[in-house]
Structures are given as structure tokens and as C-alpha cells.
């Protein structure tokens, strides 16, 4: 696909970016909202194509993905830029930084080199994470294509705000999606990430799940922002409308970036939301960013047997066999 993929020409030297719903109009010297897509010498360019700024080997559980090759290591790439401006962003140092402002190292890794690096690090797959992968959607596609050819798996950790064009392309080569559903209502997004239409995120979750992609959904529960009863109920109802099988991660907010005045999420609120989701029928509900025994373990929704025990990001027990509970034979959603 290369770095010239998700653009359409409007007139000579002027292009519309088609990577996300913002549909920014680009020309020489004018970048998209993400800060890393523009026009150079008359051609549209994803500036960060092939240039991650953060490279690490993580446990897959860190993404978080709990039902996708548990216990494996994943080579993780992040770069600069994002198509949201979340006031409580945990990775704001890279997500809200332009290339010319970056004071640290750029790596140069071409797509064909990614499988080699996986082999060198003992990773089973690659994840595009830390910042929003949509901003270098072409690189995600090309690198994932190479990884799939080599027999590895591919992951996008995303805010879910990508276009139908990107969705269709990624579905060819990206196996699993950890999607942040930050809120259910536009007015809620406007409190911390103005201008976002949550219907796009929900539609991408729905489409990917029903097209056979592995999907897990995350919400970072922010006190006074997205934690109202109305918001919680709407999120649960939406997930159930897609599938009660979708793993749901409720994570604790900690003060970050421009939301230093918002306190950490009360443990009681996290536990209440978890119980509401379970009572409504969601089968796999986890609580993250806290260390309370059992809240990140996987249980059989039919017989209640402990299937996967997690200690932080590490799997200490995995009893799932052939995708089933060994006690009752119930099929457990995931790729095991």
C-alpha cells in the first residue's frame, strides 16, 4: 500500500485524507488534525510511515487483550500523532507531539523488517499501540501484511475512530482489536475529546466483530466525566447488542495530562460497573489498573470454573483446551 494510501485528490496539490472521519483537507504546509499527515512536493504523505518512536516487547495482556493468545509476547510499535485530543491522555508525550517537536530517537523500520525483529525478540506477533494507529494506517497495513506472511499475529490498539476505508483494509491483515469505547454520547466525548462522533466507534466495533475479527473493548472510567448511570447502562446495552461474548475491560483512571484535577476512579465505582455488566449478561468483565485478586481472571460463564489466572500482566494458569472449558465443555470466546 505504502505511505500514499488513504488519500483522495481534490485538485492539483490538494488532497483529502480518508484515514479517519475527520476527512482533513491537506496541502503543502497544511497538516491534518493528527499532525502527521500532509502534502510534500505535491504528494500526500503519512509522515511517520516506517518511523516508530516507541518499540517494546510486551505481554499481550498489557494491550489489554485477555482472550487472544494469552501468555504470548508481542512486539509493540508506537509513533507520533493522534486524531483525538483526549485531555486525560496517558501517552500525551507522543500522541500530541509533531515530528519537528520530538526531541528523542526515531527508529527506521521498514515493513519487511518487522518479522525479523519478531524472531529476534521472541514475539509471536506485532501490535500497533501507544498512540492511535490510524495516523499511520498505511504502515499498519503493510507491516501487518508482512507479519501475516511470516505466520505471526497482528493487533491494533485503537480509539476506534477510523474510516470505512481503513476498516476494510485492516480487516484483511489485522487479527485483533483492543478498542477504547471512551463514551456513549457526543456530549460526553466533548468533555474530554471534542468533536468525536461515538457512533463511528460503535459501528467499527459492531462491524469488526460480525466480520470475524477478535474484538475486546476498554473503557477508562473517569469520575464525573463518563461514569454516570446513564452512560454505564448505555455502554452495557450496546455491547450486549453486539455480543455478550465481547470481553469488557473497565480500567481505573489516574490523573494525567490536562486532567490533573480529576481524582482516581473510586474502587467502589469500578466494582459497581463490573457487577452491572455481569448482571446484564456480559460474560467476561475485567477491572484493570488496580491490583485486586480475581478481577482480571477468566471464569467459565456456564459452570464458574477458573480458567485463566493472571498476576498483573502475566498468566500463571491457563486451563482452556481447544477453546473450551475443560470442566463443562462450554465454548470460550477467543483465540487460544
Descriptive report:
There is one protein chain. The chain is built from 8 helices and 16 strands. The protein has a domain at 7-46. The strands form 4 sheets. Strands 6-7-8-9-10-11-12-13 form an 8-stranded mixed beta sheet. The chain has a 3-stranded antiparallel beta sheet with strand order 1-2-3, with no helix packed on it. With 336 residues, the chain is an alpha/beta fold.
Strand order of the largest sheet: 6-7-8-9-10-11-12-13
Strand content: 15-25%
- SSE succession: EEEEEEEHHEHEHEHHEHEHEEEE
Give the number of helices.
Answer: 8
Number of strands: 16
- Span between termini: 31 Å
Structural class: alpha/beta
Please tell me the overall pLDDT: 97
- Anisotropy-based shape: globular
Query: Helical amount among residues, as a percent range?
Result: 10-25%
Characterize the largest beta sheet: strand count, sense, and whether it forms a barrel.
Answer: 8 strands, mixed
| Rounded Rg | 20 Å
Unreliably modeled segments: none
